[in-house]
Specification:
The complex is a heterotetramer of chains A (145), B (665), C (131) and D (260). By secondary structure, chain A is of the alpha/beta class. Chain A is built from four helices and four strands, in the order βαβαβαβα. In chain A, 39% of the residues lie in helices and 16% in strands. In chain A, α1 packs across α4. The mean pLDDT of chain A is 90. Chain B contains 18 helices and 34 strands. In chain B, β22, α13 and β23 form a beta-alpha-beta unit. Chain B starts with a strand and ends with a helix. Chain D has eleven helices and eight strands. A four-stranded parallel beta sheet of chain D has the order 2-1-3-4. In chain D, strands 6-5-7-8 form a four-stranded parallel beta sheet, with helices on both faces. Chain D is 45% helix and 12% strand. Chain D is α/β, with parallel strands linked by helices and 260 residues long. The model of chain D has no long low-confidence stretch (mean pLDDT 95). Classes of the chains: A alpha/beta (145), B alpha/beta (665), C mainly alpha (131), D alpha/beta (260).
Chain lengths: 145, 665, 131, 260
């Protein structure tokens, strides 16, 4: 009976508390929809996002991971997003090496005032990830219960 | 194992209409460690909080998850409630199922599923939460106000009144701001100078207030209660202590052709100047861009004439370092230059002016000594056309203008029209409007007076083109109610241009790490409930820097900001954010990676004795975090190569537990 | 016209013009700036409003659609980026695309010419008036 | 300096002067203006509707051929410039129009707006440079008071044309200064002359055109320059008796360069 189920990607979004999480709140209060596949994890700053968290997400079956922080120069902690940007650049080359499509990871700068941008970004990213299909690359490393 | 209670809020129908709250409560009730799970109409209400407190007591809960609105809204509320019941507040976590679920999704099944997953992630996190204790930090009992317009002045006076020290930093040579340029104020038509200048004098005479005029904020370090600010005192080439403000230099300076910014460039001033007679401080300033002595080394007239010996051509900028507990942004606005709207002739016709230029043309202290004469031929204009909404209310993608209503233009235009008709009854006045917006006490009555008593012609429509021919401004406009295109021969056209935040606001916001909206107005912590606070602790907002406002509103908000500052400065100690970094000394190898990325200098190193193998002692260099200084960004946690550094409340394990819960489904 | 037909005509105009009429704030600047105002029965702001109300039939029957000079002034100066000229063009096209509804027929042209008239004028007129 | 050149039909017939003087001036300035080997009429008015494809094709052909030649495309007639530049923008930004146009044309390489379109005036300003032009002037038009007539098509819509500030342009004024004359700025310089409506409503064209010339005259212009054959026609025929000369800007350019 079961039809072929439409593929729904699992997407983890790390959002900094001051800009992007507030941007997500604004998207919500402005009723700007984005796919339910996107689940947000709140962190104090984009610089709190350890690249290992992103690898962990891929290992556990995430199909896409997006990190959003304050615009460069506008970090609540002055310089956190610059560190984050540098770390992510390094992570990207590692993901290339692992063979995880570049489009599955994204970094965006979204301010507290940019609810519309938040929604637009998440819509675009979810569509990109959905088009790529399931992420099977790290499956063999997954803890199977 | 934790004993966790889960509370699902309906938020009236805000959540419950889209999320099957009963199903969420049931599903989360089956999660490991959850001993109690329920839903309730309004968790944030008194009875909702009681429900939570009863459950904590009865079920001996060690952790709480509330599935409700954004934690930025009510996290503190729920944590306080838990604390009252003896539960450590940091054992409470929020799953945001309103902004992130019910408000953006329509499908109930999909929304319910997502709410359950977000709830699971929060439960997974709470399993790893540890009780945290907040430290304390001292408060520097002095406030900084950036901007010396009416907003900054009022805020400073109110703070000083409560007995605290206040510094005002003003980039211009005098405080007073835009209000000092205005002729009369609506809706009472009393003169702006008569009500502003006494306040300026109060500021000057108040022992608690120090004015840094002709100064700019150079850098801001620190955090709430403990800001360190560097202020650049720009060289004014006049010794402020010696100058008596006698004004001889400003009368005798041979360089007479400097555009006078106080009069909107409608006349000229000297290279050494005092902006206006009631300036505070009343001290001269040399404009180095025009001063002959500064440019060629030949002149020195002012120095020769100055009896006080105050002129110092060699003066340099100086940097003053000051400490503050709170900072107020009162950076104000400028009317937009309508150069982009030359269909209205501003760039090419002298007699097309902005409203603020008209203020100067009508002001007794202005270039025409209060007689309304048009700039081109200094003749009295007999037909005047006002154009509303120039640059306001534009489509967001229209790069020329602003998407917001500038709020004050309808009222000041009614004021201008009325004043002109009263003083010069032989003048015909037309006001082209899209809508007349006059909410405010006695405001609509004021506008109606302009129409009914003063006979101002209000025309619903816009001006499409202004062309100057032989000294006549040919105005082509629409009259939408009669369906006509009007052609008016005018002598003067006045553009009510949009209010825009001062250009300096952006860089100040960056220094303060205070957020701004897409129009460069400062963002408030909550649009309705915390309108004078920035989301950044210790930063407050006063006046138009937060959004367009008229004078009464600006003054109210300025006093409100002062009240908030006083509330902060009245405390001796502030509770710190306990979600700070901590180093595991056993893992730390003393490499200094964390210290290098810390923006607050919160990390120091100490040599510590550790027990080595075979009863030896080892001295090792290890990092330690000063919890009063750490702001909890977490930069160090990722920089640490040995995994010694972690962030309380957002630990590696907690975040990874959330990742796992989200990916599990 | 039936409701469905009316809606279809409206949809066609909105699609073909690409204009979002709901952006209009009724300021009347388009009408204030229109050089062909005196020639027109319906003026640019009315075009926007009438399209919003779905009154395409009335507009299509009005000679106003052939009076627009295509000078783009209304588009350039509209603070809301509504672009009334594009609506006028869309309605005009919907009319001249109907068989035999050409506003200008080739046999009428010679009588309109003078020796200095540039080709550009004739080509423009054909583009604007006929299909 | 080599450019592809799109003259347009009117410049081959009624507006030969506009073309002739431009070519002569280019020789004097060392600019190689190579007429596109094949081109068709642009249609003279930009088809604004999103579903108008066929009427845009001749412009796309010209654009694609300039791209294939690897040179920027210079236009001279304001109307041609307006049409070609707007169509180029559609090809660049409107995926639907680009797809349908390419489906019709079946070019070897589909055209996606790669060509760069320059008006002759932009070529003078941005490539030759008005300072360099000034140096090449042998016969400066000293004492002449000249009003620039932009009309509608050269500047609007400004987001696409991107030549100058649409409400307060300076490009022709700067050109006038470069050839030694004094520019006269007047209010109606960017208002419509009446355009093609002159064909069936002469009275309307007379009203528009005479308003333009009176405005120029009131500011003291003895001459008005234009880049548009239809503007020239309207101002000369329908502009009334303001006593202001109306000429193509290229004529004055050739005169100043001593090649008229």
């Amino acid at each position: 009976m079961q039809d072929v189920k439409e593929f729904r990607p699992k997407i983890v979004a790390f959002c900094c508390n001051w800009c992007s999480y507030a941007g997500a709140d604004l998207a919500g209060s402005s009723r700007l929809a984005y796919p339910a596949d996107v689940k947000i994890i709140r962190v104090p700053c984009s610089c709190r996002v350890n690249p290992l968290f992103i690898l962990r997400a891929f290992q556990r079956g995430a199909d896409g991971v997006i990190m959003a922080g304050c615009h460069p120069g506008d970090c609540h902690y002055t310089s956190g997003n610059y560190f984050a940007r540098r770390r992510m650049t390094l992570l990207f080359s590692m993901l290339d090496y692992l063979g995880i499509e570049r489009e599955r990871t994204r970094v965006e700068w979204i301010s507290a005032a940019e609810g519309a941008k938040f929604s637009k970004t998440m819509n675009e990213f979810a569509a990109t990830v959905a088009a790529l299909g399931e992420n099977k690359r790290l499956e063999d490393l997954r803890c199977k219960k | 194992m934790q004993r966790i209670g889960v509370f699902i809020c309906h938020c009236g129908t805000n959540i419950a209409a889209t999320v099957d709250v009963k199903a969420v409560a049931e599903a989360l009730g089956r999660e490991p460690g959850v001993v109690f799970s329920t839903d309730y109409q309004y968790m944030c209400s008194e009875s909702g909080q009681t429900l939570m407190r009863d459950a904590i007591r009865e079920h001996k809960l060690t952790g709480v998850v509330v599935c409700s609105c954004s934690p930025r809204m009510h996290e503190t509320t729920f944590r306080k409630a838990a604390e009252k019941e003896g539960l450590n507040p940091y054992m409470v976590e929020i799953a945001n199922i309103r902004e992130q679920v019910s408000w953006i999704h329509k499908d109930v099944a999909e929304a319910t599923e997502k709410a359950i997953i977000l709830g699971r992630a929060a439960i997974a996190k709470v399993h790893l939460n540890k009780p945290l204790k907040a430290g304390e930090s001292p408060v520097t009992k002095r406030a900084l106000v950036i901007g010396g317009g009416i907003a900054g002045i009022q805020t400073a006076l109110d703070i000083a009144e409560a007995g605290f020290e206040v510094d005002i930093v003003e980039k211009e040579p005098t405080i007073g701001g835009k209000m000092a340029q205005i002729d009369k104020t609506f809706p009472t038509l009393d003169c702006a100078a008569c009500i502003l200048t006494p306040k300026m004098v109060d500021v000057a005479q108040n022992e608690k207030i120090k004015i840094f005029s002709y100064s700019e904020v150079e850098s801001v370090k620190g955090f709430v209660g403990n800001f360190k600010v560097a202020i650049r005192k720009k060289a004014r080439y006049v010794d402020e202590e010696k100058c008596t403000g006698c004004g001889i230099c400003t009368e005798k300076c041979p360089q007479k052709k400097v555009p006078n910014e106080f009069n909107m460039g409608l006349d000229t001033r000297r290279a050494i100047y005092i902006p206006f007679a009631q300036a505070v401080p009343k001290v001269a300033t040399i404009d180095a861009n025009y001063c002959t002595m500064m440019k060629t080394g030949k002149c020195g007239v002012c120095q020769k004439l100055c009896g006080a010996g105050a002129i110092d051509y060699k003066q340099q900028d100086t940097i003053v370092e000051r400490e503050y507990g709170a900072i107020v942004a009162a950076t104000g606005f400028n009317p937009m230059k309508p150069t982009q709207y030359n269909e209205l002739g501003y760039a090419t016709c002298e007699d097309v002016v902005t409203s603020l230029e008209l203020e100067r043309l009508m002001n007794a202290a202005g270039p025409t000594a209060g007689t309304l004469l048009r700039p081109s031929d200094k003749k009295h204009p007999h037909t005047i056309v006002f154009v509303q909404c120039v640059g306001s209310r534009c489509d967001a993608e229209n790069e020329k203008g602003k998407p917001y209503c500038s709020k004050i233009c309808c009222m000041y235009t009614a004021k201008h029209a009325m004043l002109i008709r009263e003083k010069y009854p032989d003048t015909e006045v037309y006001v082209f409007y899209i809508d007349v917006r006059t909410p405010g006490k006695n405001f609509d009555e004021f506008y109606r007076r302009a129409v009914e008593q003063y006979g101002v012609h209000y025309v619903k429509g816009q001006v499409g083109k202004v062309v100057e021919e032989n000294g006549v401004l040919k105005v082509q406009a629409s009259d939408l109610l009669s369906g006509e295109q009007l052609h008016i021969d005018a002598d003067l056209v006045v553009l009510a241009t949009a209010v825009e935040p001062d250009k300096s606001a952006r860089s100040i916001a960056t220094m303060l790490t205070a957020s701004m909206d897409t129009n460069d107005f400062f963002t408030e912590a909550h649009a309705k409930l915390r309108p004078v606070e920035s989301p950044t602790a210790g930063i407050f907002l006063s006046g138009v820097c937060q959004g367009p406002k008229d004078i009464p509103e600006t003054v109210s908000q300025a006093s409100a900001a002062a009240a908030k500052v006083i509330g902060l400065l009245a405390k001796d100690k502030l509770t710190c954010n306990p979600c700070v970094a901590e180093s595991d000394e056993m893992l730390c190898n003393g490499c200094s990676s964390c210290e290098k990325v810390c923006p607050y200098g919160a990390i120091t190193y100490t040599d510590k004795e550790f027990r080595g193998p075979n009863r030896t002692t080892l001295i090792r260099r290890v990092a330690s975090v000063n919890p009063a200084v750490c702001q909890g960004c977490g930069a160090c946690t990722v920089a640490c190569p040995s995994g010694a550094m972690d962030l309380k409340g957002f630990s590696n394990r907690q975040i990874m537990a959330e990742v796992d819960a989200i990916c599990k489904m | 016209m039936s409701h469905d037909k009316k809606q279809a005509a409206l949809d066609e105009i909105l699609r073909s013009s690409g204009v979002d009429v709901r952006k209009c704030m009724r300021c009347g600047k388009c009408t204030a700036t229109c050089p062909a105002f005196d020639e027109m029965e319906y003026h640019p702001h009315q075009f926007v409003y009438m399209v919003e109300k779905g009154e395409i039939e009335k507009l299509a029957a009005s000679p106003s659609i052939f009076k627009c000079l295509s000078c783009f002034a209304c588009m350039e100066r509209c603070p809301r980026q509504v672009e009334p000229a594009k609506l006028i063009e869309a309605v005009r096209l919907s009319v001249i695309r109907e068989k035999g509804a050409n506003h200008l027929k080739p046999e009428q042209v010679p009588a309109l010419l003078d020796e200095d008239l540039p080709q550009q004028a004739i080509t423009s007129a054909f583009r604007k008036y006929s299909k | 300096m080599k450019f592809s050149y799109y003259p347009g039909c009117t410049l081959k017939t009624k507006a030969k002067d506009l073309d002739r003087y431009a070519r002569a001036s280019c020789v004097a300035l060392g600019v190689d203006l190579a007429e596109l080997p094949e081109w068709q009429c642009c249609g003279a008015v930009y088809p604004m509707a999103k579903d108008e494809i066929a009427t845009k094709l001749s412009s796309v052909r010209a654009l694609a051929s300039a791209r294939d030649l690897g040179t920027d495309l210079v236009t001279l007639c304001s109307a041609c410039h307006n049409v070609i530049k707007q169509v180029n923008n559609d090809m660049k930004t409107d995926a639907d129009i680009a797809l349908r146009a390419n489906n019709y044309l079946k070019l070897d390489t589909p055209y996606k707006g790669e060509a760069n379109v320059l008006h002759f005036l932009e070529m003078l300003r941005d490539r030759v440079g008005f300072d360099a032009l000034k140096e090449k002037v042998t016969n400066p038009l000293t004492g002449r008071k000249i009003g620039a007539y932009y009309g509608c098509l050269l500047l609007r819509p400004s987001k696409v044309m991107a030549m100058d500030d649409a409400e307060n342009p300076t490009i022709i004024e700067d050109f006038i200064r470069a050839i030694g004359a004094t520019p006269v700025v007047y209010g109606m310089r960017n208002e419509c002359c009446g355009g093609y409506v002159t064909l069936e409503n002469k009275a309307s064209a007379v009203k528009r055109s005479s308003a333009v010339l009176e405005s120029a005259k009131a500011k003291g212009a003895d001459t008005v320059v234009t880049a548009c054959p239809l503007c020239l026609y309207n101002l000369q025929k329908n502009g009334g008796d303001a006593g202001v000369d109306v000429v193509y800007f290229t004529e004055l350019l050739a005169e100043a360069l001593g090649v008229k």
